[in-house]
Amino acid sequence: MSTNERPPAVAGYFYPASKEELNALMDSLFDRAAEPVLNALPKAMISPHAGLVYSGPIAANLFQSFAKKPEAAAGITRVLLLGPSHRVRFEGIAVSSANYFLTPLGKIPVDRAATAEALKLSGIVTFDQAHAQEHSLEMQLPFIQRIFPNASILPLCIGLADPSLVAHAIKTFWGRPATLTIVSSDLSHYLPYERAQTVDRETTSFIEKLEYEKVASESACGAYPVRGLLKFAREEKLNVTTVDLRNSGDTAGGKDQVVGYGAYAFH
Asked: Which helix (H) or strand (E) holds 223?
């Protein structure tokens, strides 16, 4: 078995590189997060993955339901984590050979038994290059480390993958009560503020209606994993709640060119 560790790729860029500064930022995000709007804890979520000062408030509102119920959060022992590949173009789904993913908050273990199970599925291979510089998965790790102290992760980097392939991967681990599924995705990129609001509301409507066929790559950078989750959710007749929908112009950026962020919970 591999003993290697996947070091952080965007510490000091997307979030602070020191443990103390990152903890302070996380404290601030959750102190300012809204009271939970969900009646029940989700089994799956779509969470944004930009720099923490930009998308962190939206993500914190999503994770707040678990933060307010630490006993339930402690019962989550595996996070199935799916995010798009931004830097490496490939087909299918990539797992990592690493035993740990690192952030300034410490090590988070990779579930090697679940990884071996995933590798038995069609279209899933070990491909460390896809993980090496990918931020979409990494940006969820500080939240997982903060809120789910007992969790290991099964990180899946999604390339050009058919929705049925992603849906099958989700379904394989779905029925287990201690497993939470998180899909990492931002929404529109670099549109003027009001145009971004229009586009992101439309994408949100598709997500709420589980219309995975209508989620476009230019409207959600995590379109491939999002489509797979929505296909699975439609098959399983899940409900979706939009927890938050904003953009960088609402948090820490200007309004000439913004990036959209949505937070969605699946029951």
From this structure: helix 223-236
